Amino acid sequence: MISGNYPVEGAGLGLRRALLGPLRSHGLGPVDFMAVAPENWMNVGGRYGQAFREFSERLPFVCHGLSLSIGGPSPLDETFVQRLRGFLDEHDIRCYSEHLSYCTDDGHLYDLMPIPFTEEAVHYVSGRIRRVQEILERRIALENVSYYAAPGADLSEIDFITAVLDEAECDLLLDVNNIYVNSINHRYDSIDFLQNLPGHRIAYGHIAGHFNEAEDLIVDTHGADVIPGVWELLDKAYETFGVFPTLLERDFNIPPVEELMDEVEQITTLQQKWQKHDSPAKRKQA
Question: CB-based contacts of 53: which residues, under 8 Å, 6+ apart?
Fold first, then answer.
């Protein structure tokens, strides 16, 4: 990815089927781009397929996958990747991203499992990413994920992420909420972690809400409003790397559209705050 050449721009919103009607009635307001999980929309026809086409023809779209299982022990599902390529091409999807985790082991696990932070895993995952990029004929972005255990780790989280991105020659989906969640659960400094990420690899970002299970345990849910501490970390990310496109994720407990738009507008406000400081030269140095 060329520094500063983002696939989309501005503030985005994840498109859920429950939002199709409300967004048609309300309008898209401050939303500059949208995102979907391709697994939820591939081969969907009828009224849902038509509704998706209406939105994808109005705004740029990115896709954030759920089932690639890039770190999984099962063979890479190349048939799925070929089908995915057709979907991305058909709808002119600007970027495809996935989770730096896995969700299969001789079947679907229905959760995002942590990849061991080891040199062996770096090589294994990087090879699978390169193969996906070869089939798709495009670079992909991997998301720094929330995790609740780090079995067998001999690398730090930041070193593991950086090593994978470098060896695979892929991009980063910077999830600000996941940094905040992990910093509480694993007791590290969120700003220090953020500033050590390879900013020149950022394709776009995520921001979301979470659930406080206990004082020292946060669960990444995407089912609540974004808290002030996460907004502050996004502000620090723009200060550090320059403004990058950022998407609001809300997967359940979806509030009225007006409330979602307020959060999207808050992304825009932060971006405008740092826009005058932003430049490709700054991003290249990050």
Answer: 91
